[in-house]
Amino acid sequence: MAIQYPPRERLANVPTPLQPLNRITEKYSTPYGGPQLWIKRDDLTESAMSGNKLRKLEFIVAEAKALGCDTLITCGGEQSNHCRATALAAAKTGLRAHLILRGKALFGSDELPADGNLLVDHLAGAAVSVYPLREYVEQLPALFEYWAEHYRQLGGKALCIPTGGSDGLGIWGYIKCAEEVLADCAALNFVPEHLVCASGSGGTQAGLTLGCQLLGVASAVTGYAVCDDADYFVNKIVADVADWRQRYGQTFGFDKSKIQVTDSFIGPGYALAGPEIYRTIAEAAQLEGILLDPVYTGKAFHGLLEDVRNGKYRGSNHLVFVHTGGQFGVFPHRAEFMQYLDGL
Ligand SMILES: *Cc1c(COP(=O)(O)O)cnc(C)c1O
Questions:
Q1: Closest by alpha carbon to 300, among 323, 330, 334, 329?
Q2: Fewer Cβ atoms within 10 Å of its own Cβ: the N or the C terminal residue of the chain?
Q3: CA 296 to CA 277: how far, in whole Å?
Q4: What is the pLDDT of residues 195-247, one digit of tens each?
Q5: How far is CA 268 from the centre of its chain?
């Protein structure tokens, strides 16, 4: 049965390419009996708006317009790809964006020159409020309410978008991507045994997992956590799917036992990576001409290659890694790359 999607604002260049990773497969998978590795290039959803968040924003912006909103309020880390994509998508669709950002230090980090995603946020004309880490963590709902009220007072109306755009609305983006990538594979005459992505706020994995189930395809979706543990992601994905069911009156019986999360490659913490991640990023650039990032895709891809080596994917023929973007987040890490460059 065809999936009925809610209204979508067209922002992404889809379908994104599905490409084989032949040089990496030859070096890191074939010798261990692993599958052919493929990459779904969601880093190419757009140039500046690049990455996975744009697929979610297509549905979020359409909803904002349907509700008569003139402002998008969202939140994230200072180098949030989601906030940057929201700022640009708002600009393009004539909406205002207000970003609630988590600063590093006690007093935020307004004093630092804007770099990477944050620089783009400013270029896109977004209003940016940076809060000290503790205030952000403890007060986030109140901060959303404060700014929503601020725009109400001005006669406007804001849509509040949760972290990463991950909720029952945003996951439509990756339900749709599941349908797209399975069609890409079908055109090449295979069904992938595995789909793999980085998991940060869980919406990408939730959408892919739900999408495969809705389509009745047995492909296993595995998320590589970049921050919280596996239990957190299982609960988050269940919650996003429950929100989706409730919002859209869906009765589909989602099988939560199919949620697979690997939390062995988080390293020191969110946005903190060891030398092995920087090395994998350099190697992917050198072998395949692709750019991974140290916060999400580099960690997930590194974990994937380790698991291929450990035999986790032995016996399967095709594995698709969904490249979720993050290019702008590479540059603020220039110092770490330099530190490890000699050993690469
Ligand atoms: C946000 C993000 C992810 C994680 O996606 P979620 O849906 O939040 O789990 C992965 N990669 C990149 C580059 C991202 O910006």
A1: 323
A2: N
A3: 10
A4: 999 999 999 999 999 999 999 999 999 999 999 999 999 999 999 999 999 99
A5: 20
With beta carbons less than 8 A apart as the criterion, state whether 250 and 168 touch. no
289 alpha carbon to ligand 1 midpoint, in Å? Answer: 21
Which residues line ligand 1 at a C-beta cut-off of 6 Å?
A: 51-53, 81-82, 164, 166, 198-205, 293, 296-297, 324-326
Q: Is 219 in the active site?
A: no
CATH number (3.40.50.1100, 3.40.630.30, 3.40.50.2020, 3.90.180.10) of 18-50+168-340 reads 3.40.50.1100
What integer pLDDT is reported at residue 112 of this predicted model? Answer: 63
For ligand 1, atom 15, name the residue with the nearest CA: 81
CATH number of 52-165: 3.40.50.1100
Q: Of the given ranges (99-108, 188-197, 324-333), which has the lowest mean pLDDT?
A: 99-108
